[in-house]
Amino acid sequence: MRVLVTGGAGFIGSHLVDALMSQGKEVYVFDNLSTGSLENVKHWLNSSNFRFIKGDLLRPSDLENLKNEDFSIIFHLAANPEVRLSSIDPDVHFQQNIVATYNLLELIRRAESSPVLAFTSTSTVYGDALKMPTPENYAPLEPISIYGASKLACEALISAYAHTYGFKAVIFRLANIVGPRSQHGVVYDFIQKLRRNPRELEVLGDGTQVKSYLHVSDCVEAMLLGVERSSRQVEIFNVGSEDQVDVRTIAKMVIEEMGLKDVRLNFTGGVDGGRGWRGDVKNMLLDIKKLKSLGWRPKYGSKEAVRSAIRDLLKG
Fold it and tell me: What is the domain range of residue 110?
């Protein structure tokens, strides 16, 4: 089985590549290395089952390297993952999420075969959901960030292309994914801030933001199982843990794991009722019963996943 992973040198993508390679798949990685790193996949570079292609989905000419390949599955993870950036420069998410996905869909449309497309979306498509845990059929979807809106636009494009051109698509709405190789998000940010100043930690917002966190190993298992067992032409799965942890607790966990004492927490107060930034969803918990019904369940709860991620990032 030949598999393509866009963004395969990134955080989640590289862990997915590890799993696919361990299953004996023939894996192609397509990545522009803007946020990913060749270091994440270097242990596969000499394998006959692995091929790395440096390319950008925003340059259709780069996709020419893929047009004659016969892929069974395409995992589309290439995107800009910084939710906070969308309030500053919305064009980044329009280009790197929506336009990039459109260009990939055009490649699939013109392909002789019909690969399964697996897409990593986000819990932020729900916006400030009124139902907790939030199920996949929650409506109306009202994202409050440009990032969330761009991912929802990608979902709509994927659904339309899949139905119009006759291929299968599986969409994964991810909670906050943490673990080794991560280079963004609250855990990574706290560690970097404390390395610069071990006496004070700036915490965006009021610290009461509470969300679901999932270890990257659980995320990869969910994606592989979801692709294998999905039955509809376009299937949507929530992927997260069944509990939450707040930002203040995460800050204390990072301080504890770094062995620091007497650290002052400096809460910025945030915007719109204590959010870290405009577009920050303050309360998120996904209903994962649909994926659990197929046989998947997370091995780690939110606190366990966060603590494991802290330790791994400190080692790294």
Answer: 2-177+215-239
